[in-house]
Amino acid sequence: MTLRTEPITINLGPQHPSTHGVFRLRVTFDGEIVVDAEPVLGYLHRGSEKLAESRTFVQVVTLTDRMDYTSSMTNNQAYVLTVEKLAGIEVPERAQYIRVISAELSRISSHLMATGFLLNDLGAFATPLMYCFRERERILDLFEMLCGARITLSFMRPGGIFQDTPEDFWPALTDFISNFPKYLDELETLITGNEVVLARTNDVGVISPSDAINASLSGPMLRATGVEWDLRKADPYEIYDRLEFDVPIGSKGDTFDRYFVRVQEMRESLKIIAQCIRDIPIGPIKTETPFFVRPAAGDAYAAVEGPKGELGFYLVSDGGIAPYRCKVRAPSFINLTLLKEMLVGWKMGDLITIFGSIDIVLGEVDR
Amino acid sequence: MCNEFAGGLIHFCNIYSIFDSFLPENLDWMAFMMAAISLAFAAINVVVMATALYILFERRVLARFQARLGPNRWGPFGIFQPIADLIKIITKEDTTTDIADKIVHNLAPIIFLSATLAVIAVIPLGNNSFLGKLNVGVLYIVAITSVNVVAIIMAGWADGNKYSMLGAMRGVAMLISYEIPMGLAIVGVILMSGTMSLSGIVEAQELPFLLVQPLGFLIFLIASIAEMSRAPFDQIEAESELGAGYHTEYSGMKFGIFQLAEFMAPLITGIVVTTLFLGGFRGWAWLPGELWFLIKVFSVVFVLLWIRATWPRIRFDQIMAFSWKALLALAFLNIIILVVEIEIFQDNLGSISLNSLILMGAINWVVTIVSIVFMANALGQSKLKRPKAQPSSLANMYAESE
Amino acid sequence: MYGFGLIKGLWITLKNLLIPSRMFTVHQYPDRKASPLDLAKINESNLFVYLFSHPLSSIKSLLGLISISDRQKQHPRFRGEEFSWYEERCTGCASCAKYCPLGIIEIVTKPSGKFIPEGEKYFLEKFDIDIGRCMFCGLCVEACPYDALHMGSGFEEGKYSREELVINKQRLVESEKHPSNWFRPQLENKTYNPFGPKSVEWDNVGRHEQPTMEDLEDRWADR
Questions:
Q1: pLDDT tens digits, residue range B105-142?
Q2: Which of C8, C10, C22, C59 to mutate against chain B (most B CBs within 10 Å)?
Q3: In total, how many domains does chain C have?
Q4: I want to staple B151 with a disulfide (CB 3.0 to 4.6 A). Which of A86, A113, B83, B112 is the partner?
């Protein structure tokens, strides 16, 4: 007589210490193996795209930096590039350099948070998390110098940035760049060589390159599978075509690769910032645009390489002061396409690890 | 009974003689009882208060590892924090599920705590200071710590909650599979010292057994960390995992007793490791034996805390594989090597000279390193090496920009 | 490999435990217990000199009875919660109210009958800012053409009921004005400190002019 077992469905509810926000997942287990996984989204939906239809083009900037709240600068940058493409506004060079510096700083900040939380999900009892957050404090102090707030920044405006940098920003930035690699080396020694981390993340949650491209993944998830695709090199915007940096890729497409690609990207960002500090010109920081920008009727799409993937805005204007339609291509939401294929067949202990390595932020998934 | 030897600092006979001196002669059974009760009372109180202080110590030191401060508001350096925790736990509501089995539900924390507390009864605390002298002390320790398993099953079953029962089953599976390497590592110690009594083991350690049999020490340390379900083996009670563990349905002081027993376990483990492997109360003569004992226990406890702060947790099937494949094989290897060495180095009287001990230690360290390398390769270390990254041919951004 | 990665990880954690300069992000707001070392540093004397000259304070601080305040350093460009508004400069144009994304500024004006040759300045009957719903984005400050509204520098504006969170015109007029440097580069010189005790009057606040190329080259000359 054979034993009859039954799969049970557990609700990994919206309130959970390790789901990076209010994310609900209905998982079906057969013993210890995951058989089915169904995400339920929408717990943080605030109607950003509809709200954008009743705000002017400059007021929408404040809406955009609340979507991916771990890296506000790239959200601002994507939106502002779209408005400039739509309205045909030229941006002065100094503003572009400062935009690139702040985007790379926020990329470092987002990757630090992703790494810290991945280690927290693995069970390292918050120690690497605290180290990552301590270094992130330095970046947030730099942001406070630039625009007065730490997380919801609203730094950029269509036509440039809103105010020039204070004088004590540049010594602090140079200080940060010279101290940070030493810290990254320490983090790598703590994590990359650790056999427990290797044993838990090696060959876990593997995606093949063709699956990744078919599911339109982007960002570190795509690069970890080995596909070399980065918007900063494939379709350069702002001044990225003048900068020299490498694009790290992974070898196997598993969880360890996704973590390792993020660490290497942090080092590349430091290189970019150093080149920008060296080359930045003196000049105006914003072209004169009216308060209520009125682009001609039409539509435009512009995308940037955010820390989570390709972040794009599609704006339709009908000649008024507010966008007629604003659609956001949110990378975290599209990176969740392959969630079920990545989770099925793995064990209960791997579930949280694989989910943590996708690095989603719920503000972007639900907008 | 008390006429043979002079006791050390903490010895039953000293206390008995104090009581005996002011009670009349035919009431010496009462003196005996009062001495026993007062000694047990003092011992239990000291251990419980030490646990409370250890909880504070752990929280502060873990916080310092994580670049933040621990609780330091109540009293100087946060000394009154355990009192605040105690008040919080006592004033919480004590819930029980409707379908619970009340007797088993109430009994589980008590058994858990008493099993953990009863270990200190046989530990030698100083030269001739102990609470009780047992000829088979080691067997007693191994047996008493196995009662924890029963308490966990009782706790998981009595609530009627299938998730806590699942968590308890997983926990018990892990605990019983780590008792085997623990016992086998202790066999190595018994072989070297020739006796199962803990005072005899301490006496036989002219060179601490950490230096003579490092493999046994490592196996015992890892197995006892798993017995305590502490990081990196705390999959069963991790907060970020699904099964919430065997103590889900407990609240109030019963949960407080579970927490007390869980935080007492590192102290007890430190005491046992010190006695078996680090030489107990032996040390140079310029400090009394009890102080050496405390220093050694403190260092073992600090190492346990250090490990907890640093390493992530291991997945459950990897925990079981590690115990049954790696630790068991290494424990057997340890016993075989020790038997061979004792046969070679033992002289006619049955004792081993200090030089031979040092030679044995050197051989054993080499054996340890070689066997760990061999075991790591045998268990699939080569799969952890990462291949070099090759860009995939499916997308190439450099070609498109032309 | 073979456990060495684990040992190296242990070494990193121990380094972070023992080196005290790694804990720079810890601020025990609002005050923390002072140790004799802190008290000696405040009195600018050596530790042992302080222990001998003030024995009572040393013992009290060892028992944890003395507190000193501990706040995080804010940059002068910090976007604070209370607003600085100068009634003498405000003309009632309501650009700030039009520019606010949330629409929380409420302005009611009436003709004042003054300055008629220059084009009349409105008299404000009501100027309410609801900081219970404000997101402190600063677009209102950016919109003001006369530099009458500035962001504040504090963050301790919590009240016990929602009605008290609406700043009305009387509170704005009577409060101490510590405008922050946000979008006001004319305030960014080394002598002005928004967190200092002095408040700024309406004729000292200056105007935000676009800098010329010569000004920019002077400013960034040593870069």
A1: 888 889 999 988 888 888 877 666 667 777 888 888 88
A2: C10
A3: 2
A4: B112
